[in-house]
Amino acid sequence: MEDFDIGILFERGEVLEDVPGNSCAKIFEYICDRIVVPSGLTAHQLQKELVEREKVLSTAVGNGIAIPHPRYPLVKNSSESKIVVAYLREPMDMQAPDVRKVYVMFVILSDSAQFHIKVLSALATLFKNEKFRKGIQACPSKGELLDLLRRISRPELL
């Protein structure tokens, strides 16, 4: 994963707080209506693709975290690949392996299957990091989240 900086994807993406909804469809609709949707897509198309993927298998990974993403890459321009972070108003049961309710979603929008795998791998590494998991429980703003990422990637800043 040389030359791969997941922080860039967080910089490109939005951070949404207090996201309402009692179903994935409602939550995805809210998210898609409030982000910059990649060119060539509408908010409705993106929401539909996220819902369809969620029907296949829950994207909840445990520890209150889910990683929603379309079934296939929808982003046409790699510079529009990003991660959108959404903190839910009310934690929601998404059938996570550890049965914890999801309170935060990291929505992945990528331009290729290969890049998507790199993003998943990088997120998995972050999710294993106790400092990161504790940090996101405070629902940090975008600036705070980017600062948290910098501190984790550069432990001498701790």
TrEMBL record:
It comes from the Bacteria. Gene3D superfamilies: Mannitol-specific EII, Chain A. InterPro entries: PTrfase/Anion_transptr, PTS_EIIA_type-2_dom, PTS_SugarTrans_NitroReg. Pfam families: PTS_EIIA_2 (PF00359). Residues 8-152 form the PTS EIIA type-2 domain. GO terms for molecular function: protein kinase activator activity. CDD domains: PTS_IIA_fru. Coiled coil: none annotated. This is PTS IIA-like nitrogen-regulatory protein PtsN. It comes from Treponema succinifaciens (strain ATCC 33096 / DSM 2489 / 6091). The lineage of its organism: Bacteria, Pseudomonadati, Spirochaetota, Spirochaetia, Spirochaetales.
